[in-house]
Each structure stands twice: as C-alpha cells, then as structure tokens.
Amino acid sequence: MATAARSTKYRRQSDTDLSRMEIMEGAALCFESRGFAATSLDEVAARISSTKGRIYHHYASKAELFLDVYRAGMMMNFQAVEPLLELEMPAINRLKAVLKAHVLCVIRTKAFQNVVGQGVDMLRHGTMPANEHAELRQLAELRDAYSEHFAKVLEDAMADGDIRFQSIKIALNSVFMCINGPIVWFTPRSGQSEKEIEAVADECVLYAIRLLGYTGKMP
Questions:
Q1: Among residues 159, 123, 161, 128, which one has the least CA distance to residue 143?
Q2: What are the 10-residue block averages of pLDDT along the chain, 219 residues in total?
Q3: Structurally, how many domains does the chain consist of?
C-alpha cells in the first residue's frame, strides 16, 4: 500500500530531526493553547527552554513551523492506521481496529491534532499568506488521502452487511466527528491508566459505528 509522500524532513532520525521534533512538540502545545495568531516564536522557545535562534535555525517563520506541525500530525495518523488496513480479518473488525487506532493517536498526539484542525479552519477562511495557503491546500490533499483509507473500510463493512449508510461523505463526516471528539474534550488525568484510555477509545468507536447501524458487540 502506498503511503502518503513524506517530506525529506521525516526520512531519518538524525540529530537535526530530533531537534526539530522537540521544537514541533513545544510549538504544538503553544498553538493548541493560544492558537496560531496569538502564538509567538518567543513563547515556543520558552516552552522548550531554548532560544528563538535555535528555532530560526530550522524554520524561517512561525507559519513554516505551524505547517510542519500540521504535517507531522497527519503522518502520525497514517502511521497509526496503515499497518491495520491489510489485516486478514472481517471488515467490521478491521473498521473497529482502524477507528480505535485513530482515537488513540488523537489522544496521544492531541496537540498535533489540534493544529491539524486549526489548519483546516485557516484554509477555509484564507487566513494565511499565499505561499503558506498553497501548502495548506497540499496538506488538505493529505487529509483527503487519509479519509480514503476509512472510506474503503466503511464500504467493505457495508458490503458484508454489518453497517449501512446511503452517502459515504455523510458517513465519513459522522464517524470523524466521533473519533476526533477527544481533540476537544479529552484531558488526561494524573495517573490515568492505559486501560482507562483504551476504554475511552472503545466508547468513541462504539458511538461511531452505532451511527452506521451496527448492532453487534464490541470486543
């Protein structure tokens, strides 16, 4: 299966890559809490206990950093679900698996996924300069490719008679509303166990497939 093309920035884990990821992690938290417009590179530097010069060593602007965080968030999603797409199992079980993998990725990379959501809104409202806006359009194509993975599994599960829908577009939007929900409302508690997080993911998956008429049981 062809994986969405990656920037050369993500092809190896050199010292430069690791430094860039640390910057992106700090930036994602800043963008999540304050939004793109209100976040400054000074704040990102303070978040990672570094200097603004170190950030400028990797990024020419705040917009370039934001777009890299967006891209990284999408690649995290692809990496979470793609290994499951060719598993030999009933389509409904594959659907449950990819939905759960997405929810767990959303929970574990919440700040990055929040930036993806901001990027979607910025593309819709045209709030970035022309060059960056063009890259936002390219990232939207990456999101479309990711959605196609889910569309295929949904169609397979419907062909088996386990779910039903009339419009794949409406089905996808409904499912993503459920499995992206933790971006908005999930905040990890101190000491929260992996078992509890898995239970949250299972509940999100159950709501998503119940919307599509699934009447069976979850594992």
A1: 123
A2: 39 57 97 96 95 93 96 97 95 97 97 96 86 90 96 97 96 96 91 93 96 86
A3: 1
CA distances from 37 to 30, 40, 132, 202, 204 (A): 11, 8, 14, 35, 31
Task: Say if residues 107 and 182 touch (Cβ distance below 8 Å).
Answer: yes
Find the CATH number of the domain harbouring 137. Answer: 1.10.357.10
Please state, in angstroms and as integers, the Cα–Cα distance from residue 144 to each residue in 125, 147, 174, 188, following that order: 18, 5, 15, 29
Tokens standing for residue 51: 């200097």
| Stated pTM of the model | 0.88
Range of the domain at 136: 71-210
How many C-beta atoms surround the C-beta of residue 63 within 10 A? 18
